[in-house]
Write a structure and sequence with these properties.
binds 2-acetamido-2-deoxy-beta-D-glucopyranose; signal; mainly alpha; HATC_C_dom; RNaseH-like_sf; 260 residues
Length: 260
């Protein structure tokens, strides 16, 4: 049925552009809600307004001599049902969009002068969502952004700020015990599985490690190798590999099979 194909052609670009948001390596948390809302709005419009392809229906019918009949109830039975289902699915998939939007304030990239009240509304909402005492969280947050302001950090992205809590060079300040609730929010924000780029990166590494001659690698071993490979740079990985080989050969009575 021509009309159904044209409807799909009108809808797919909107789904694709939403999907592209998630294919970037660094998906910014603050873009999620707007992108989802924009897609839902556009899809809602398609219920009553023809997109560019459906507008060409008559033209296509005459130039390509397509005479298949359009059911009279196409709009109610096909178009509306399909779009409602699609919108419902997208909404369910991103039911946490509000929380993700609030978590976005933790990324302080580009905030040169952080105002004292920065992010208070979001922090209160987050306290509510994650069952924290709002007052305690607000105090910790205020102290934390004051510290970031004075620390003159060049990189104020989410991973870099999370590092403040865990990197050895900041241990003396003991930020983790000073701002435990803020640290918790950072941990939640960083593990949001938003970017599909990361997933693809991991799968391509699995393929590289699990080459055909090592196809019988145990899952446990594969996980260990992957953890090392994904968390250190190429030179470090090679160094670790060298050390492993050295250790391997130091052990007595190694029986080498199939060495080429
Ligand atoms: C269009 O298709 C119909 C039936 O499929 C055929 O009878 C007619 O000749 C076609 N017209 C043209 C211009 O090709
Ligand atoms: C919505 O999701 C369900 C379950 O995954 C699926 O069967 C259905 O085809 C989806 N509907 C649309 C319109 O994408």
């Amino acid at each position: 049925m021509l009309k159904a194909v044209l409807l799909l052609a009108d809808v797919l670009p909107h789904i694709c552009s939403l999907s592209l948001v998630f294919q970037k390596r660094d998906v910014h948390l603050g873009n999620i809600r707007t992108s989802v809302e924009k897609t839902v709005n556009l899809l809602t419009t398609r219920k009553t307004q023809n997109g560019p392809w459906l507008q060409k229906e008559e033209h296509l019918r005459s130039t390509c001599n397509i005479t298949d009949p359009t059911p009279v109830d196409f709009d109610t039975k096909v178009r509306e049902c399909f779009l409602n289902g699609l919108i419902e699915n997208i909404t369910v998939r991103f039911k946490d969009a509000d929380t993700i939007d609030q978590l976005a304030i933790l990324d302080l990239t580009g905030t040169d002068n952080i105002e004292t009240m920065y992010g208070y509304t979001e922090i209160e909402a987050l306290a509510n969502t994650f069952d924290m005492d709002p007052e305690t969280l607000l105090i910790q947050w205020q102290d934390f952004i004051a510290l970031v302001s004075s620390a003159e950090l060049t990189d104020r992205s989410l991973p870099s700020l999370l590092e403040l809590f865990h990197s050895p060079c900041h241990k003396d300040k003991n930020l983790l015990s000073m701002y435990p609730l803020v640290a918790k929010l950072f941990s939640v924000a960083i593990i949001q599985p938003l970017s599909t780029a990361e997933v693809e990166r991991i799968f391509s590494q699995v393929k590289l490690i699990k080459t055909s001659h090592r196809a019988n690698l145990k899952t446990q071993t594969l996980t260990k190798i992957l953890t090392v490979k994904l968390n250190c740079d190429e030179t470090k990985f090679e160094k670790i590999l060298d050390q492993c080989v050295t250790t391997f050969f130091k052990k007595k009575n190694r029986r080498l099979v199939n060495v080429v």
